[in-house]
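User:
Hi there, any thoughts?
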Amino acid sequence: MLKLIRNSLLLLLTVVMVTAVTGCNATSKKETLSTQEANEKQAVASTHVQDKENEVIEQKKKEATKETNSKIESEQKASTENNVNEKKQKQTKQVNQASNEKKNTNSTSSTNKQQKQIISKKPVEKEEEKNIIIFSIIGDKEVGTIFSKSQVEYKEGDSVLDVLKRVTRGHKIQMEYTGFKATAYVQGIDNLYEFDRGGKSGWMYRVNAVFPNVSAGAYHLKKGDKVEWLYTLDLGKDLGATYK
């Protein structure tokens, strides 16, 4: 009997313990599930917060980028406007410069025209006529022309001999004479001397087709005279000499 009671008590105790353990396990399981759910909810909430923060950061980046682009566009626009203004100023300067140059040219042209008109109104001064004669030196047939007929300038008061000396000296033509003024006598020109072609040969001069009967040093010239030095073989007869 006692044994039966004891077994019954043991069985009852066992049942109670099993029930308690089972309840504890169920409670523990329930608590574990609750903890997992809480963790999952917290994780989801944390994910939402992180996504929100990322969205805010991304929005700020977009706004910063937009602001930067807007600033760059503004700077580019300002730079473009400055370039346009500089170009316009340069063009305006060039136009003004061209206009000023044209005005200056017109002014200079007008001044020159006025000066020309003033000059044209001035009486034309007659150019002073130079003292000119026609001069030549001709030898015999063998020598020929020594100095071709040319216009020669002379000084007031010059004699035929003065011009002969100046021409021969200027053209390096040999000439020799003796005497002075009324006693002057030409002996040779270009190494052709008196008596080289006979006892009646020598040098003579002729003015305006006339053989003057005075020394070449004593005959004074006037404008337009035609003076010829000629070599005679017969005291001038071969030249048609007629003395004045």
Remarks:
- Helices lie at 2-121, 160-170.
- The radius of gyration is 70 Å.
- The longest strand covers residues 145-153.
